[in-house]
Amino acid sequence: MTWTPLDFGRYRGKTLPQVLFTDPDYFFWALAEGALRDFLVEAEDLRRKATHIRVRQTGPNGLAVEYIIQPRDGRLADVTFVPRAQSLHDGGSRVVRMDVIDLSVPRRLAPFDKMGGGIVVAALKGHYFENRHARMTRRRAERFFEDPGNFAVA
Fold first, then answer.
1. 63-69 and 76-83: which strand pairing?
2. What string of pLDDT tens digits covers the 154 residues of the chain?
3. 3-state SS string over the chain?
């Protein structure tokens, strides 16, 4: 697929896959506000994929994703991968468990949560690239979103 670089705003010259790995909050905000109307086909495809990223399975029971939520302000505190059979995190924080990695979770919890976006992207990079600080070049980001095996949607 050929990705169209943005021609406006703070991410001018970047493609939408790059934006998702840099600032998922901005991507979901821009999509909701209609700022991506000239990129709607790409943006909708990426929205669908970015909210249904397959968890790579290891072990006999498989893994799930736990989104741990800060009790004081409802923002994303952490993202962990746990065995599906494991009981939910026991502590003062609320936990949401899902079978997919969803880059929109921080924004749905608290709009403009840049730290939460960084947490979920770091967890994704650690899970797929085995390095939470992996450098995401344009080509690497685009290749990730071009591989249908990375997503739990058709």
1. antiparallel
2. 789 999 999 999 999 999 999 999 999 999 999 999 999 999 999 999 999 999 998 777 899 999 999 999 999 999 999 999 888 877 778 999 999 999 999 999 998 999 999 999 999 999 999 999 999 999 999 999 999 999 998 6
3. CCCCCCCCCCCCCCCHHHHHHHCHHHHHHHHHHCCCHHHHHHHHHHHHHHCCEECCCCCCCCEEEEEEECCCCCCEEEEEEEECCCCCCCCCCEEEEECEECCCHHHHHCCCCHHHHHHHHHHHHHHHHCCCCCCCCHHHHHHHHHCHHHECCC
Separation CA 101–CA 120 (nearest Å): 8
Q: How far apart are CA 1 and CA 15, in angstroms?
A: 12
pTM of the model as a whole: 0.94
